[in-house]
Amino acid sequence: MASWTALKICFLLFVCVIMSGSASTQQLSGQDYYARRCPKALETITAVVKSAVASEARMGASLLRLHFHDCFVNGCDASVLLDDTANFTGEKTAFPNANSLRGFDVIDTIKSKVEKLCPGIVSCADILAVVARDSVVELGGWGWQVQLGRRDSTTASLSAANTNLPAPTLNLSGLITSFSNKGFTAQEMVALSGSHTIGQARCVTFRARLYNENDISSSFATSLKVSCPSSGGNNNLSSLDVTSPTSFDNAYFSNLVNQKGLLHSDQQLFSGGSTNAQVTAYSKNVGWFRNDFAKAMVKMGGLSPLTGSSGQIRTNCRRIN
Ligand code: HEM
Ligand SMILES: *[C@@H]1O[C@H](CO)[C@@H](O)[C@H](O)[C@H]1NC(C)=O
Ligand SMILES: *[C@@H]1O[C@H](CO)[C@@H](O)[C@H](O)[C@H]1NC(C)=O
Ligand SMILES: *[C@@H]1O[C@H](CO)[C@@H](O)[C@H](O)[C@H]1NC(C)=O
Prior knowledge:
Its cofactor is Ca(2+); heme b. By secondary structure, the protein is mainly α. It has 15 helices and 2 strands.
């Protein structure tokens, strides 16, 4: 009897150990993940981001976007960084990425510095997560605790990049569906869209809004048409936040209230639908936006990471080892 009880306890302990083991292989670790593995990793990343953003403020926006385009396509695994080769097709030529994503050189600079410090330790996927946070902080936003411990993929998916990243032509229900496919609520989608308080977009992504839509401020449309004519100038850039394009603030939401969203998808968040009240609330209270944004970014950073023995730590973020 005593030995039977002992056996049951032993069995339960065994199950618990196995379960905690498998749970930890799917979960990320805290921000101290590299504290002993590569103590200077985070400060090295931050220093490169600081200098890149100091020489060009927009780079902070471009770096933030890289993490989003990584995570929404088969998880935060640095698949977005892989270059195409003769026998490998990556994600860089996908419609949302081609002629649009930037910042790859900054990631290369960071990677070569951390490889010198601690070869084979710091993943490209973790670099993207830290860089996204540091970019927001550099542009005046608040930081958050970044979860770490991701590993890098040995694959990429052009088709997933084409289907999983939301298009600027989507309406509100399309945006809600796109984010819900990744496990996000409509509220989290609105918070994450606040990323468009920094950075720029090409004329080709918002032209139809200037010439075909009514829910746009006429003075705003008129000024945008100068650099975004009805034909030509596809690559001419305008700020996503017309008010304060290099400050991570809540002006994006005030702009929406004033019908000054640049993209069709931006203005959809304040077009009389279910997200109107949240946009108004964020426009009035930057603290609410920043808190919700931070939480949603941590959640986004947790999308299907590779951990344990899955994937690899790439030596060069542009190619598999
Ligand atoms: C809600 C759905 C979203 C749509 C439809 C969308 C679409 C776009 C488009 C079309 C551009 C301009 C690209 C170009 O012209 O080359 C852009 C830029 C940008 N997006 Fe989004 N986006 C969305 C959500 C997000 C999220 C969730 C983030 C970050 C967490 C983000 C971060 C950015 C940033 C920072 C830029 C500016 C990049 C730069 O200046 O280099 N976007 N987005
Ligand atoms: C792709 O080609 C390179 C040489 O260009 C080779 O080293 C690599 O093994 C090839 N990869 C595959 C998956 O065939
Ligand atoms: C949103 O777009 C989808 C697909 O284009 C369309 O079927 C739907 O009717 C649109 N919804 C609204 C409310 O306009
Ligand atoms: C691009 O924008 C500039 C002004 O920023 C404008 O002078 C130029 O004409 C635009 N390109 C085209 C093709 O319209």
